[in-house]
Amino acid sequence: MTPLMTRAQMRRYDAAATERYGIEGLVLMENAGRGAAEVIRRLVAGLPRGPRAAPHRVGLVCGPGNNGGDGFVVARHLANAGIPVRVHLAFPADRARGDAARNLAVARAMNLELLDASRPAALPRLRRALAADAVVVDALFGTGLDREVEGHPRRLIEAMNAAPGLKVALDIPSGLDADTGRPLGVCFRADHTVTFGALKIGLALHPGVELAGEVDLVDLGAPARLAEEIGWAAALLDEAGVAARLPARPPAGHKGTFGHLLVVAGSRGKSGAAVLAAQAGVRSGAGLVTLATRGDARDVVEARVREVMVEELLPPPGTVRTGAELDRRWEALARGKTAAAVGPGCGTDGPAA
């Protein structure tokens, strides 16, 4: 089971990592950026080489906040790995703040290619540069964005979307609401998203799940129990998580040990619903499954199931049974059953009611 956090929970998560456990924000940013750089290195290594075998370049569009700071860390590690990088600053350089400003200073000291993309006049150059990049990294907005994207930032996102290269978002695609998964006017359309610390609930909701592409989760180095301490809004079920919650099956168990499910389903023309419901009972672990269906569907259903016992609940059309007879039939079918699933494909006519 993978926790899904809201923007407010992620804010508390980051704050608790620093205030409760003493992990500085600069360390969290370093862990995020280094982990994202490792993912991007793998993606670059998988790209096809051109006829000249020139190294693939990565273009990054960075904002002034922590998401941009993550981008500066990514650029540094990619450059150290020998991958050419070009960083486009979506803000005047003197507006960088906090840990992002410190990592921008490191990038400048390394003489990384830093280009001003903070004004509309820079858009043509930005579009040309991104068109030549093998990978475009979105480090513009993070999870804190909760308003419509307008003006120059909107044009920056549109320019990134128009680029032909592989698109990677840091933490969350810029313009995606971290809580709802809905675009805030415009949204970066990522092929891959590298998210940090915990999955954001907006990455698992439509249309966010499509806009994020393939998602990689990078560990920030905070204690594993921090997510439980903060709490989460929802969780993604996975095979391991579900298996851990299923009761262990005793070695000497048999079909009578694991319950008997009664499925009341199906009618003429709707036998598929009955078959699917019964098969679901078998696959979910019921030891025995009995399918009670209407007489006009019984032969069709019985020919399509093997592990399931089939019984007639209602007689075929034209056969008359009293209410008392039907009650006794129902009581007989229900006797000894652990659970019942009633309704799929039964119809809405008088006998079904």
Task: Looking at this protein, list some descriptive labels.
353 residues; alpha/beta; Rossmann fold; 2 domains; 7-stranded parallel beta sheet; 4-stranded parallel beta sheet; 12 helices; 14 strands; 37% helix; 18% strand; elongated
Written overview of the protein:
The longest helix is centred in the first third of the chain and has 21 residues, at 25-45. This protein is of the alpha/beta class and 353 residues long. The mean pLDDT is 91. It has 2 domains: 2-46 and 56-242, 3-Layer(aba) Sandwich (Rossmann fold), CATH 3.40.50; 255-342, Rossmann fold (3-Layer(aba) Sandwich). The protein has a 7-stranded parallel beta sheet with strand order 4-3-2-5-6-7-9, with helices on both faces. The protein has a 4-stranded parallel beta sheet with strand order 13-12-11-14, with helices on both faces. The protein has a 3-stranded mixed beta sheet with strand order 8-1-10. β5 (135-139), α6 (151-162) and β6 (166-170) form a beta-alpha-beta unit. The protein has helices at residues 7-19, 25-45, 66-80, 98-109, 123-131, 151-162, 208-212, 226-230, 239-245, 271-283, 298-302, 323-334, and strands at 2-5, 58-62, 85-89, 113-116, 135-139, 166-170, 192-196, 199-200, 214-218, 234-236, 260-264, 288-294, 309-314, 339-342. The radius of gyration is 29 Å and the shape is elongated. 37% of the residues lie in helices and 18% in strands. The protein is built from 12 helices and 14 strands.
Question: What is the residue-mean pLDDT, rounded to a whole number?
Answer: 91
Count of domain modules: 2
Tell me the number of strands.
Answer: 14
* Helical run tally: 12
Measured distance between first and last alpha carbons: 40 Å
Named CATH topology of the largest domain: Rossmann fold
CATH class placement of the largest domain: Alpha Beta
Order of helices and strands: EHHEHEHEHEHEEEHEHEHEHEHEHE
Q: Rg, please?
A: 29 Å
Shape: elongated
Helix content: 25-40%
Outline the low-pLDDT stretches.
none
Alpha-beta classification: alpha/beta
